[in-house]
Design goal:
By secondary structure, this protein is α/β, with parallel strands linked by helices. The protein is built from 13 helices and 11 strands. The strands form 3 sheets. It has a 5-stranded parallel beta sheet, with helices on both faces. It has a 4-stranded antiparallel beta sheet with strand order 1-3-2-4. Strands 5-6 form a two-stranded antiparallel ribbon. The protein starts with 6 loop residues before the first helix and ends with a helix.
């Protein structure tokens, strides 16, 4: 499905997907704007695709006219059959982050010149496109991967995805390094990113990120969505302890809706509910077969849990029909997603979040666990529930 290409729709997508960057908490964010912007077989863009690209670039140019004075810039990195890969970044914050030797040295080994940000991003875009087996096209003008042996790919190409992209999203240096070294495995917690080193710090960091995702979209003036961003300079977010809930204040009512085949996602659901109640909310764990759009209206926030099934998809007999019904009426309710998986690398969650985004669901965070949740997975689930309280 191609999302409408106009300024209000695109602005809403930016705010929904890039709020931590807009709020100055994170140097950069990346999201896919749905639509057919390239042919699946990698052939040259036809007139309809070229027109679609031109219209989106025109919308982005108008947004940049207002965002550039605030130090924020939007760029399309790659055109793909499923959508345009849009990168939002704060120039000053990103340049400072990449100048650190922990990023600079690692990126130099992959051909990046971090002293020249435009060329650096063009190189990243090229590497992403090359890893897509020719089904994607670099969107940077005259951009080309600096590594000669990767300058062109044939149909048998097996270029590895540029996992150094974690540096371009501002994730903790040590976690990005370990993700690359460990090939994405052996992580301790998987929330906003895969955590390998300091779990406690990562869970603390997730609080302001989730806060931005939850509050910024609702505080934006739809008529002039960038107006209040001038009051959001690049900053280091300082977390504050949770205040005690005042006596008599409304207690949030949270539904934890799940489907589970092996019991792993059910265990996660119970941990999510425990985290919510521990943060002062009232939580109810409900099987998806017993949940509906009518019941959703009774809750302030909802956690949905479903494991990876089949070809990286949701369970289709009970959970998918319920989700398809409920997602259309969630409006601005806070929503989190969770589930377990036993193969691949959790692509089903990416697909699920993309579907939620397409429906306008306010997803503030997600957690996935490999098989049964271990101690770190338990902590992540409880933190997820606390975000809804």
């Amino acid at each position: 499905m191609t999302r409408t290409i106009d300024i209000p729709t695109f602005q809403a997508a930016v705010v929904r997907n890039c709020s931590p960057t807009l709020a100055g908490i994170k140097p950069a964010s990346l999201f896919t704007y749905p639509g057919i912007y390239a042919h699946q077989d990698g052939s040259s863009a036809t007139a309809p695709i070229a027109d679609r690209r031109a219209r989106l670039l025109n919308v982005i140019a108008q947004c940049n006219h207002e965002l550039d004075p605030l130090g924020i810039h939007l760029s399309v990195l790659v055109w793909r059959p499923c959508g345009a890969l849009v990168y939002a970044y704060r120039r000053k914050s990103l340049a400072t982050y990449l100048a650190d030797p922990r990023a600079k040295t690692a990126l130099a080994k992959e051909g990046y010149n971090t002293d020249n940000l435009p060329i650096c991003l063009a190189h990243l875009a090229s590497r992403i496109a090359l890893a897509s087996t020719n089904a994607a096209e670099c969107a940077c003008d005259q951009a080309r991967c600096a590594l000669d042996h990767q300058a062109r790919c044939n149909n048998s190409c097996s270029c590895e995805f540029p996992h150094e992209i974690g540096y371009f999203l501002g994730y903790p240096y040590d976690d990005v390094h370990q993700f690359i070294v460990q090939h994405g495995e052996n992580y301790k917690v998987f929330g906003a990113w895969k955590v390998y080193t300091n779990v406690e710090q990562a869970l603390t960091t997730s609080i302001p990120i989730a806060h931005a995702r939850n509050t910024l979209p609702t505080s934006i003036n739809r008529a002039a969505p960038w107006d209040n961003l001038s009051r959001q300079p690049d900053r280091a977010y300082k977390t504050r302890p949770h205040a005690a809930q005042p006596k008599g204040k409304h207690m949030s009512k949270i539904a934890v809706v799940y489907w589970s085949g092996t019991g792993n996602t059910e265990a996660m659901a119970n941990f999510v509910a425990e985290g919510a109640t521990g943060a002062g909310a009232e939580a109810e764990v409900i099987s998806c077969a017993d949940f509906s759009a009518d019941k959703a209206a009774s809750y302030d926030a909802i956690a949905f849990g479903c494991p990876a099934m089949g070809s990286e998809e949701l369970e289709y007999d009970e959970f998918q029909p319920m989700w398809d019904e409920v997602k259309e009426i969630l409006d601005d309710k806070k929503v989190v997603l969770f589930g377990s998986y036993s193969w691949a690398e959790g692509e089903w969650m990416d697909n699920w979040k993309a579907d939620a985004d397409e429906a306008g669901v306010n997803v503030v965070d997600s957690v996935i666990c490999y098989d049964a949740p271990d101690d770190e997975g338990e902590a992540a689930c409880k933190a997820l529930g606390a975000e809804l309280a």
